[in-house]
Amino acid sequence: MxxxxxxxxxxxxxxxxxxxxxxSNPGKRLRAQLTEAAAYAVAGxxxxxxxxxxxxxxxxxxxxxxxxxxxxxxxxxxxxxKPTLHRAFDEATAILVGDGLQTLAFERLATCxxxxxxxRLSLVALLSRAAGFAGMVGxxxxxxxxxxxxxxxxxxxALHLLKTGxxxxxxxxxxxxxxxxxxxxxxxxxxxxxxxxxAFQVTDDILDVTQDSVTLGKTAxxxxxxxxxxxxxxxGLEGAKNEADRxxxxxxxxxxxxxxxxxxLRSLADKIVNRSH
Length: 277
Prior knowledge:
Oligomer: single chain
CATH superfamily: Farnesyl Diphosphate Synthase
Number of helices: 14
Distance between the termini: 19 Å
Structural class: mainly alpha
């Protein structure tokens, strides 16, 4: 992922270097892949606009990671195998880059000529809700409030449906909007998204205790050190693995409506649960 056609998004050279640093290592681009694959499942062919909207979703995701890593939040030193942005630059610069990437996402969305006005408005509502108080922001608040506590499994699921799952589900629904999904298709994409959103977090919790920092590209054991409730803490390691497998089956079942057109989505679901980082 790059800054696109904007060679200098800011008049400040330090801020531009920090933007380039944040965007030069895009990670797995899972959410963008989900947007494109969801559009394909609905339309049965590649949808050009879904690639552009996938980039929008990734800008929102990158902003959220930058802010989540800040000392006032998760206080992490490593992200995608590199020092976190506030470590590579400073805390104020990281806050500004995160703020700017969030607003850039909606600028790109508003000016996406591959979509009509109705689609763009629908996506503004969808993505702002997923990234806001009813989505990622609310989930992060719940996560921080849950530190040093033992959350029940249902509380943990509710938290991660927001913090992790909301943007994943929105990425899929966004692909549906790009392809003019009908209500039944939208419902199926949402069910798939909720299942793999939870599966992604369960797998993250498993990897946090089974992999090292080099493999993960982020600090291993961070949740244990912060005394956070995790699926491993709630269910045990084997129980968490069983939960990930259960969610994977639920995700596959949600795609029945799309037949062979959902092959990419099924493959991505498998990769989410079977990944090593």
